[in-house]
Specification:
The structure holds 2 protein chains of 2 kinds. By secondary structure, chain A is mostly helical. Chain A has a domain of 93 residues. Chain A is built from 5 helices and 2 strands. A two-stranded antiparallel ribbon of chain A has the order 1-2. In chain A, α2 packs across α5 and α3 runs antiparallel to α5. The termini of chain A are close together. The N terminus of chain A is likely disordered. Chain B is mostly helical. Chain B has a domain of 358 residues: Sodium/glucose cotransporter, CATH 1.20.1730.10. Chain B contains 21 helices and no strands. Classes of the chains: A mainly alpha, B mainly alpha. At the A-B interface, α1, α2, α3, β2 and α5 of A face α5, α9, α10, α12 and α21 of B.
Amino acid sequence: MRYDDPWYDALASGWAESTAAGVPEPRAEQARRAREEQAAADVYLEVQRSAAFQEVRRRYRRFVVPGVVVFLVWYVGYVVTATTAPGLMARPVAGAVNVAMLAGLGQFLTTFLLAWAYARHARLRRDRAALDLRWDTQELTRSVRGGAS
Amino acid sequence: MTDHHQTLALLLFSVFVAVTLAITTWVSRSRHGSAEEFYAGGRLFSPLENGFAIAGDYMSAASFLGVTGLIALFGYDGLLYVVGFLVAWLLVLFLVAELVRNCGRFTLADVVAARMSERPVRIATGTSSVTVSVLYLVAQMVGAGSLVALLLGGTSQAARAWTVIGVGALMVVYVSLGGMRATTWIQIVKAVLLLAGTVALTVLVLLRFHGDIDRLLLTAAERSGHGDAFLAPGLKYGGSWTARFDFISLGLALVLGTAGLPHILSRFYTVPTARAARRSVLWSIGLIGGFYLMTIVLGFGAAALVGPEAVRGSNAAGNTAVPLLALNLGGGAGSTGGTVLFAIVAAIAFATILAVVAGITLASSASVAHDLYASLRRRHAKRRGEVAVARMASVGIGVVAIALGLLARDLNVAFLVGLAFAVAASANLPVLMYSLFWRGFTTRGAVWAVYGGLIPALGLVVLSPVVSGSPDSLFPGVDFQYFPLQNPGLVSIPLGFLAGWLGTVTSAEVPDEAKHAETEVRSLTGAGAV
């Protein structure tokens, strides 16, 4: 399903039409188009301010920001420790396995765990609300642009 | 090496080339020549397919040949690469995959340019994307060269040069004729082959040690001559503080670079929705994580069974550890098992290089045609023209990559990939993060973020010991080395972020509130996504 969309119109043809000696648009047509663009922009502002969108954004950020901080700190800490305190990393734990090996495998484990947690969080807490917002927004932009395309 | 090796390896490799060329022809038979088809393969791949394709794009010769070689030579310090390569995917999953799928169309520049004055941003982002791709391509070409040198006896420079040229020519054929659809299928075939080969070798290594990983590690440590130090960090990146900072720099580049790699970003556009993009990243994290766990076993296995001396003797940078390990596992040089296994592994490594090279070439030709050509040309042309430009661009990029690949042939493949990651993290990541998450970001900020990361990153590499001033450099005869680190990431990544911030706060442009709202709504909901 495709929609005529100002976002991509600008990319696909905007620069070409404005710089090329294309057919000049009648002034009334230009004004109508500008009004439509403005109306579409207002739709996005309106959706952005809506409670439903703020909730989706809040849920996304509340998971992602701590998640990114945790894994970056854990990873950078691992790298810095490996380079500055090799003695600590070389301490044996069991057999040939030392602290460094455990930390390395720990990085693998946390990566898998965080990826799984993110996917679960997105599926349960975000997907449904985001999809509803998507259809609503598309309905709104379509109606201000003069009916179905 | 005996003739049997060569014949069998070449035969297997020819089969792969034949199969992939068949895929390309079959796919291009029904192609429409639209940009949608050429850059994004029609956007109808399933998450599973795309997950394999992403893994195929990412598990390059650098990992298979370079990282295992580093582990075989330096023990634990090689393992640090693997961790960075994998953890980077969390950043992609959390901050990039879904949002980029929702707001972009074909390239990184699409996401950034939507909020900004289009022309300067597109030119900047296109330039940096092409630069990253070319650096990454060189790494793969060098891998191909080392492999052939091993296969044909190590001394034949002409054969090495011809391989690099042959790989370049093949990739141009795949990309220019088959576009994204053919490239994706080639990635999938290659990912399956590579994983199968890695699983087989890992099982053989573990069988050799009766499943006792402890003994594998101890044998590797003993054989290396370094004892327990082999299993702890510090052999390669210990000692001087320069080396330590170099490693921290590399670690940062690895974890932040993946999210800025153009050929990875373009893969998210081959699936229909953001949700499918997320699920493909999950698949690829599983596949890539499993693969890297196995490369650790292979690296230590090569140290234990082949020994660092033999590895270094075959290729000073360690790029040939895995093929040598295969030879050993099959029963040693001259035995049938060894010959067969060696040939299979060599063919898989070739396939890996070809597929990755095709993926990168496609992404960079998309940047050339969709971003650079579209912004720099003057006259109006139809969409079809853009795809034609992309096809031609792939030829030009192939030529550049071949030339640089011949020049850089003695550097370690994993190390070269580290450089490409550093440039990606410095030039592409800041602009992408700012445009997705910063309300006040402006055009000047975007342009400065790209050039403020790209120019220092490249400049520092030129001034580093990689290029001049040490016996291992590209130009050992001259000395214009002023920057001590081999990897510029530690300096250039913060510079990229800083330049973006500075450009934004100094520009007179008032950020467009509505455009930011549009980006935010689109990126999180998928409204209006193609």
